[in-house]
Amino acid sequence: MGADIVVCNSIVGLYARCGSLEHSRTLFDEMPEKDGVTYNTMISGYMAYGFINQAMELFHQVPNPVLSTWNAVIGGLVQNNSFHHVLDLFQAMQNAGFRPNSVTISCVLPAISSHSSLLTVKQIHSYAVRNGCDRNVYVATALIDAYGKTGFLDGARRVFDASGAGSTSVIIWTAIISACSIRGNSDSAVSIFRRMVGRGIEPDPVTFTAVLSACAHSGEVDEARRILNVSMPEFRVSPEAEQYACVVGALSRKGMLSEAVELIDRMPFPPNSKAWGALLNGAAVHRDVAIGEHAFERLLEIEAENSGNYIVMANLYSQAGKWKEAQMVRKKMEEVGVGKVAGCSWIEGNGRLQVFISSDMANEHSRQAFELIDELVGLMREEGYTFAAKEELDEECCCC
């Protein structure tokens, strides 16, 4: 039976799913005959474990790739956050004469939303409508997610109302809750969550994370507690670190820092960086140096390479007038070899994405932008706003 292509494909897939990629590739190379399934299986196996280069090398060896092969590669790239390559491959697929189907569209949309290109999302949506696949649950879910991430919440709601409001699929309800959460609309997120539960649709852990994230963004402490202590046990979902971190975030944003520390201490497993990060940010907002130091020490143990933690702590010290301590944090950051990630903002206009990076003078409009910032800072000072130190302004400023 060794030469039977169906049997060989199954074994190649078995090895790949078990993570034995060497065995999978050995059998793949020895097969006297290969079809589209063979290549798709091997490519997906590489992509599942992050071996993008090997997967792409294999893809370029496919004699006559079919649509499913293109979809496997595009889906794998999205899975590995290689969004730039996705758009290039999507264009190459169309140039090769293939028409995107619902699988292609649902895979490509996350890559487009990562670039905040609302116009392109609308174009993909229009294509989906013209080709009758906009009601596909996976396409609709991807569209809701993409519209939410590009800031067009009305678009996300329209897609949901057209194809998801009557659906029993938990993923499409979770998508619209997440879209509301991303835009900071906690009232809508909680309201949709309640509608979902009222229709007998059981939320999963991802749904709970989405609605709790909305509570964290707005400091909805009571609702966050109710969901954690009542709703999750009701649906037999055990809270995980992600959900606890959201509740810590809600408490911290509200200034209930002691309660946030108590919740972290009661967690049945070691708290992750998101929980400590939420506490540190809350301490910075409410200028609680002691709790900030406590959270910062824990974060150094978990993610010493995260530059954001150092900057928040240094600024907290600066706000408290502890210049020596602030300088020590910045010095430690240099000793560890952590560099501050340059602030970046972008806006879509004139048919393309305009990107601005902090302190970058390469853009032709940089000088005018910096002059405008100086004017704005001057106006803020006239209105009574003060800055603890020049360093704080420099590190907090992300635009140019």
From TrEMBL:
Which InterPro entries does the UniProt record give? E_motif, PPR_At4g14850-like_plant, PPR_rpt, TPR-like_helical_dom_sf
Organismal lineage: Eukaryota, Viridiplantae, Streptophyta, Embryophyta, Tracheophyta
Q: Which UniProt keywords apply?
A: Repeat
Recorded source organism is Platanthera guangdongensis
Q: Please verify whether the record's keywords include Hydrolase.
A: no
**Keyword Nucleotide-binding attached:** no
**Where are this protein's PPR repeats?**
4-38, 66-100, 169-203, 204-239, 306-340
Checking PROSITE patterns in the record gives: PPR
Q: Which Gene3D superfamilies match?
A: Tetratricopeptide repeat domain
* UniProt-recorded name of the protein: Pentatricopeptide repeat-containing protein
Q: What superkingdom does the record give?
A: Eukaryota
